[in-house]
Structure formats: C-alpha cells, structure tokens
Amino acid sequence: MDTRSLSHFLMLADTLHFHRSSSACHISPSTLSRTIKQLEDELGVVLFIRDNRSVSLTPEGKRLQTYARESLLQWESLRSSLQSDSRDLQGELSIYCSVTASYSFLYDILSDFRREHPRIEIKLHTGDPAESIQRIKSGDEDIAIGAKPDHLPQDIAFRPITTSPLVFIAPATATHFNIPTQVHAIEEEWISVPMIVSEAGLARKRSDAWFRSLGVKPLIYAQVAGNEAIVSMVSLGFGIGVVPLIVLENSPLASNVQLLEIEPALDPFEVGMFALDKKLKHPLIQAFWSLSAKRKGILPSLNKP
C-alpha cells in the first residue's frame, strides 16, 4: 500500500507549515502542494486555508486529519504484526528525549534494542523534556522520555526507568551575588538571589512551590528551555538554578558549578517513558517498551546527590 499521500497530508496538518513539512518528508514544497491538491480533488473538498502568512485546517481537513492518523496507525500496526509473526520487526520508531537522556541511560537501551531489532529505524529527536507528553499527545512521537508529572493524563502510559534528585546548583567561582550558605533555607538569603529557571515543566512547578513555602517571590534572572541551558548559565555566573542531578552528572560543565545542600529538599524526579496508551499494542512500541522494563533493574537510581 502507498500511504505516502496520507503521511504527507498528516505532517502538514500537524505543523501547518509547508517548508517544515516538506523538509520532514524529504520532498520539495511544490511536490507537497501537488499532493494536497490531488487529495482535495479526489475528495472534492478544500482541506487547508492558505494565504501568504498562514496555513490552517478546514473542518473537512480536521476530519481527514483524524482519519489519517488512525488509518496510518492501524496500517503500521497490521504491517508490524504480520512481520512479528516471522520475528523480524521492521519500520520506524520515533523517540523524543533531552540531550542528557540521549547519551546517558537511553544509550544503553538503544544499543540493546538495535541489537535485537536491527531492521527497526530509530528517529531520535531531542529537546526540552517539558514538551514530552504534549509531543506524544499530538502524535509527533511514538515514545518520549521525561519526568513523570504529579498528575498523569489518563490516555498516557508511563514506564519508570530511574529516579534523580532535583538539586540547587550555583557557580563554582566568585559571583556578583551572595550564594546562600544556610542548609535550612531562610527568606533573607533567597529574596535577592537571581534564579535561572525552566520556562515550564515539573522542575518549574516544584521550584515555584518551594519558594512559596519559604514565603519568597523569586528574583528570576532568566527563563530557559532545557536543563542543559540552566547548567550553562549557572556556570557562567548568572544565577542559581534547579536541575535534575542526572543532568549535572552528565554535563561537560559540571566542574564549573557547585551543589547546594538546601533543606527542605525538592522532591526527586521519576524519569521514564511516555506513550499513548492505545498505541502500546503496536509491535514496535511494545518491543521497545518491553526492553526498557528488562533494563530497569540494572539502571542506576540516582537518589543521592
């Protein structure tokens, strides 16, 4: 079966951007435009509203988006299921994670998976782990790695891999501000400390709650996407940050920052995999999901700074 037309349509429906979609599909924008035009002619409806500034889906386009997503998923599941009968899985598996995850614990999982399933092509995308669940819900990724939120959406499955403390870090050298020295946090020391914080995500929620419990409105110097960027800015002396310990231990800048022993401590992260619950029966996703469960017992649990 040739599913390329639906795949190309779905990519454009998800991104609403011709250049990014054509690039992701490895075709030219003109080829993508012809594909959409052929679909519109075949269906007798307009799928997209286009002008010089934006692209948006029509109501008919949204219906086809739902159909395309379900049809491609069912086709891929059937194809993989038939292949699994011969124990020779093949196809594509899209994974999203942070840069740190890609070269720490995920490296070993991917190595084992590649050895067991050499014909499965891995598409690895890196970015801010705060976006993990949204990328799964939008259908952009099959599996994502991130920290389990306090409230997990009902349609999202989670499999734990390891745990990591959430720690305060400060520049290792002299700074233009006073670094808190009291183990038991007091308001006077923290009220004027410049903070480097995440734009969103679990670390931001927990650091905000920590400051509220102290009765302090944090002095936010910068809001950044990604924990690696926080380590970088702290190492340059811009302020104090909050990051998972696993990020710090795998950072090339670890020697340029210092851990602050602060009480009360922040709750640790439970790091693991996310997937849509309804996609867990997909043979490729199931194979990766099962392999991570086998490795969970031998992965380090980072419970001590």
TrEMBL record:
It holds the Pfam family HTH_1. PROSITE patterns: HTH_LYSR (PS50931). It comes from the Bacteria. InterPro entries: IlvY_PBP2, LysR_HTH_N, LysR_subst-bd, WH-like_DNA-bd_sf, WH_DNA-bd_sf. CDD domains: PBP2_IlvY. One of its GO terms (molecular function) is transcription cis-regulatory region binding. Residues 1-58 form the HTH lysR-type domain. Gene3D superfamilies: Periplasmic binding protein-like II, Winged helix-like DNA-binding domain superfamily/Winged helix DNA-binding domain. This is HTH-type transcriptional activator IlvY. It comes from Nitrincola tibetensis. The lineage of its organism: Bacteria, Pseudomonadati, Pseudomonadota, Gammaproteobacteria, Oceanospirillales.
